[in-house]
Structure formats: structure tokens, C-alpha cells
């Protein structure tokens, strides 16, 4: 039996900051709520009302990992690539 493909559209629950504050709902545990005025996201815990939930924070783009060794003119390429490739060759991801 083969598995088929199902197309889905995932939409976050969203509204203006004023509407969120006036309604002050309790978001379910893990439920995201997007404030379109602040362009920010809150995640529910199942018992805290909207006005008391913190916005998610961060600088965007994820964190930076540790910097590896550098050579005389820049980063040093690994001796062997992740797939057994050759030194000095760049592999697109």
C-alpha cells in the first residue's frame, strides 16, 4: 500500500494586539498566537491568559554556534566533508 500526499495550509491564530488584549484568552499548551500589531508570537501554556504571557524573544535567524579554527586568510576547510568529500571543495546545502 502506498502512502499518498496531502496538501495542507497551516495558519496561526492571529489578531491585533488590541483584540488579543480585550479578549485575553487562555491559549492551549503549545498553541501559538500571533499579534499582528507587534509582529510577535506568544505560546500558550494552557492556563495563563494572553495579557500575562510573554512574547517570544530572540534576534532571529537562530543562534550562532562556536567559531571553528581559522587559517591565514579565513576559515579552515574540514579535512573530509560530511559525505566523504574532498578537502577544499564546497558542497551546497
Automatic annotation (TrEMBL):
Residues 11-48 form the Major tropism determinant N-terminal domain. Residues 58-68 have a biased composition (Gly residues). Pfam families: Mtd_N (PF18454). InterPro entries: Mtd_N. Residues 58-79 are annotated as: Disordered. Residues 69-79 have a biased composition (Low complexity). This is Major tropism determinant N-terminal domain-containing protein.
